[in-house]
Amino acid sequence: MNEVSRTNVIIVLFKYSVVAKVMEKKLTEMSLNVTTVVNDLSKIEEWKKDKPFFMIYLSDDMADNRLFLDKLSQMSDIIVKSGSKMMLIGEKSYHNELIQKLPVLKDYLWLDRPIDVNTLGQTVMKEINSGSHNIEKKKILIVDDDPSYAKLVMEWIKEYYNVRVATAGMQAVSYLKRNKVDLVLLDYKMPEVDGPQVFRMLKSESDLENIPVIFLTGLDTPEGVAELMELNPDGYIIKSTTRENLLKLLAGQFA
Question: Are residues 182 and 208 in the same domain?
Fold first, then answer.
């Protein structure tokens, strides 16, 4: 039996939720041992010695409910002191307010509700296999000569990733020689130094060749895609895609 199949995941609820059953089913299908606990500190104390992966599913009125905040503070204190990993799932609208009230939570991964169960599963597996409970955002460089589009993509993903933008090919190469990133989203068509040229430059540098590169492209024809894939990038995504599809692609890349 491998390490993942032995991993215990504890879903902690403050109120019963049907969504928790959906999450439990998805994670169980991934060979994880899943237990759901509803508002029970004693159960968390009981489980902490095994250092499971805790998922805290927050209620709608979490930030304004003093009773729930006190209980969350106690729960997080137990989890943090045990050295276990933890992820919080809640409404984006009260994320910042909650962190201000409970600063200890700022170093832990946050997923917005409503959640996509496939993205959730990929994220949980990634965090279980990571070496630290303090989650550092992956670094992504967006390279696109259209500042408006680059800004749009940055807004889509900045909640989950540490994002930087370059608006020219050589600017991107220069940045990457000085800064470490985990992935490059690279515009295929750019003036002067285009995406393929930047890609070849990166692959020719020993300290840059292993950076994953995903092309951003408007080429949605079979011929255009075939031309792009001849370079053997780590993937591509059509520029007309949705935020949800882009986040799924990135989650899959880092899973």
Answer: yes
Give the tens place of pLDDT for each residue, 169-191. Answer: 999 999 999 999 999 999 999 99
What DSSP string runs through 210-231? TS-EEEEE---SHHHHHHHHTT
**Is 134 part of any domain?**
no
Cβ neighbors of 240 (< 8 A, separation 6 or more) are: 218, 220
Give me the chain's average pLDDT, please.
83
- 204-220 pLDDT, tens per residue? 998 899 999 999 988 77
Can you give the residue range of the structural domain that contains 162?
139-254
C-beta pairs of 47-51 under 8 Å, 24+ apart in sequence: 47/8, 47/10, 48/78, 48/79, 48/82, 48/84, 49/82, 50/8, 51/82, 51/83, 51/84, 51/85
Q: Which two tokens stand for residue 34?
A: 């899943």
Proportion of the chain in helix, strand, coil states, percent, rounded to 5: 50, 20, 30
Domains identified in the chain, total number: 2
pTM of the model: 0.51
**Same domain, yes or no, for 185 and 116?**
no
